[in-house]
Protein: tRNA (guanine-N(7)-)-methyltransferase
Amino acid sequence: MGDLPAGRPPQTHFDDGLDYPRLGGVSFRRGTLTENQHALWEERFGELGTVLTEDSGPIDVDSWFRRSGHPTVVEIGSGTGTSTVAMAAQEPDTNVIAVELYKPGLAKMLGALTRAGLDNIRMVRGDGIEVLTRMIRPGSLSGVRIFFPDPWPKARHHKRRIIQSGPLHLIATRLQPGGVLHVATDHADYAAWIEELRDVEPLLEFKGWPWPEAPILTDRQVITKFEGRGHRLEHDIHEFTWQRRPAPEATGKPA
Ligand SMILES: C[S@@+](CC[C@H](N)C(=O)[O-])C[C@H]1O[C@@H](n2cnc3c(N)ncnc32)[C@H](O)[C@@H]1O
Structure:
């Protein structure tokens, strides 16, 4: 249960002239679960998780979370879920959908959320771009979080970075007006790359950091594994927030 389908992962061909990342070898990363993790996975993944496949369609968030009308946040690349779980505990009224390719990471998070007794996290195993495209309805999210995305430091791998004009547009379309995109990185070169893209998406208004009036939780609560490594390396943490502008028809201006 919870395995990625064999063969090429689903990849939408975007035809909008924007730049989209190519999925690197990350989806094929191996890793094993401990016996306990495996048992918990078998017991709970069916209820709390799903795997992106070619047949995946829009998620019915209300029925998945068994409650209606709550704000929904998607975190892409939740890793082992350290900040996901810590934040979800502070925002019980928010539905949190954690998207991650790496099964042992999701398994670790499943253990942590079970121990914490949290019922506001669901998991999707798959590529964040495809999950947003296929499984998340336009204009439905209060927030999107991307914490410490893979920096792909070599120039020839920069096209794999998740922050590019295409994903920024895709995220903007999935956010409801007023919704928030929050990105953090400890990688100086990636931070400069993001800085260059901060105004590229007309539907997103750059809000900077900190943004105390943000309508969703922006305090990451804990130092994640990757952030901890950044601290040890004395890297600065760079945080970015944007807010989804009102729909173009509401402003009367073209998008
Ligand atoms: C550097 S780690 C950061 C993990 C976590 N956010 C943290 O701060 O500890 C980046 C994570 O993003 C995941 N990832 C990379 N590309 C992804 C994609 N296209 N969709 C979903 N997850 C992805 C990787 O598997 C990895 O766990």
User: Anything to note?
Assistant: The chain has nine helices and eight strands. The longest strand covers residues 175-185. The chain has a mean pLDDT of 91.
